[in-house]
Amino acid sequence: MFGFRVPLPSLIGLVVLLAWAVVAIAAPLLVPYSVGEIVDFDIFGPATDQFWFGTDYLGRDVFSRILMGARVTIGISLAAVTLAVVAGVGLGMLAALLGGKFDSLLSRFFDALSSIPNKLFALVAVAGGGSSIPMLIAILALIYTPGSYRFARSLAVNINAMDYVIVARLRGESFFYLARAEILPNILGPVLTDFGLRFVFIVLLLSSLSFLGLGVQPPLADWGALVRENIGGLPFGAPAVILPSLAIASLTIAVNITIDNLPRKIRDRSA
User: Fold this and answer.
1) Does the keyword section mention Transmembrane (predicted)?
2) Cβ contacts of residue 163 below 8 Å, gap of 6+?
3) Which of 65, 83, 143, 159 has the greatest number of beta carbons closer than 10 A?
4) Number of C-beta neighbours around residue 34 at 10 A
5) Which residues pair with 55 in a beta bridge?
6) Which structural domains are found in the chain, ordered by start?
């Protein structure tokens, strides 16, 4: 009727994303128990009417810890990907507009930075700078800024060669105007797609760091930390180790299927 049909997989992905967003925002209001409270002497307990997701290795409520873990995981990942994409897109458009030595030097710097394996860089940086939440956000943002920069620069270079941009430059428009009014609107669709993909990468890297004990530290816990601390329950099929893993999977898969099923005119708009 309106000429716009949302594919079913995309709709499912959006519903899952919306559900996790609500959980991340309202987690303190939704948890039935304090995340650090020992509520049962039965460790790795099964799901019951009282404890919907069972209990963990100390007898704490897993449902409450997963809800609060969503707040930490999504919050850190969203902050990091926002910093990475804003910095990468801004510098990418600036490099495309200025060109010359500035473009060359900035591109070589980010090429050198991106040549370091992500996990190795993260491990060294966390070991040297600590694993506080601000430090984790900064490290994750720094790791994914080079990729965002290269992606945005490649799009901006193509737009910068268009006739309407050349005309605007001849009119004497400033670099800020060219970036804001001519280039950014025409690369926004692909940039948003890239934003979603990098969010997934950051969630997985953050969870990997926490699983290794170098991510979020107690008393806070993200989903990766929940898997690590309850890994002893894996032989018993304890919900305490299985459900945080499913939470990570549901979030990342929901983002991926949402991006994959975006209308083509949104994903491919770069002109």
Assistant:
1) yes
2) none
3) 65
4) 13
5) 61
6) 8-13+70-267 (1.10.3720.10)
Q: Tell me how far apart the alpha carbons of residues 131 and 129 are, in angstroms, rounded to a whole number.
A: 7
Phi, then psi, of 60 in degrees rounded to 5: -90, 160
Task: Yes or no: say if 140 and 85 are a contact pair by the CB < 8 Å rule.
Answer: no
Q: By the 8 A CB rule, do 68 and 221 touch?
A: yes
Mean pLDDT throughout 3-29?
Answer: 84
The residue to which tokens 């997989």 are assigned: 9
Write down the pTM of the prediction.
Answer: 0.88
Give the 3-state secondary structure of residue 108: helix
Q: What token pair was written down for 234?
A: 């894996």
- Crossing angle (nearest 10°) for helices 62-98 and 184-211: 140
pLDDT digits (tens, 9 = 90+) for 60-87: 999 999 999 999 999 999 999 999 999 9
What is the phi-psi region of residue 130: left when phi exceeds 0, alpha when psi lies from -120 to 50, beta otherwise? left
Whether 164 shows a pLDDT value over 60: the answer reads: yes
